[in-house]
Design goal:
single chain; 163 residues; alpha/beta; Rossmann fold; two-stranded antiparallel sheet; 39% helix; globular
Length: 163
């Protein structure tokens, strides 16, 4: 998935530090984090491809145990191709969640292309599924739940937490 606008609401907050430096602050949704952990419990591999470099993204990816992280990938297709090789999967076996035109090259290649409702019009027109929840507000969790249900894994995971 992309990060800004998908795992976050797209806002980038910069806080001034002494000496003219700026520190970035990002907010991530805990439902998305829990969903990604559930995906991993179900055997799915997870990752992000983002056009920016962010210590906050790296920290969140580590915290969640994401399998793949590609930063500074404004052109996302080369990073996607590298992840495909590392994961040894075909593009049609992948779901990607994006929100802007820079995500389109990847979205056009994957088996399940998803946008968030706050994504760019051109992206929403070209995907198979648009989430009900906005980016940064549980959209990733919605997609994880959708995949787990389609694969017949959701109820088994749910029972694990109900027993």
């Amino acid at each position: 998935m992309d990060v800004d606008g998908v795992m976050t609401d797209g806002s980038i907050s910069l806080v001034s530090e002494p000496g003219g430096q700026a520190r970035e602050i990002k907010s991530f949704n805990s439902l998305d984090g829990a969903g990604l952990r559930l995906a991993q419990l179900a055997g799915l591999r997870t990752g992000v491809i983002t056009g920016r470099v962010s210590a906050a993204v790296a920290a969140r990816a580590r915290e969640l145990g994401l399998d793949y992280i590609a930063q500074d990938a404004f052109e996302k297709l080369p990073a996607f191709e590298k992840i495909l090789r590392q994961a040894r999967v075909k593009p049609e076996e992948v779901c990607f969640v994006g929100d802007d035109v820079t995500d389109l090259p990847v979205l056009r290649r994957v088996g399940l292309a998803v946008s968030v409702p706050n994504g760019h019009d051109e992206v929403r027109r070209r995907v198979q599924y648009v989430t009900r929840r906005s980016g940064g507000c549980g959209a990733v969790r919605e997609v994880v739940d959708l995949i787990l249900r389609a694969q017949g894994k959701y109820d088994k995971l749910l029972k694990r937490f109900l027993s």
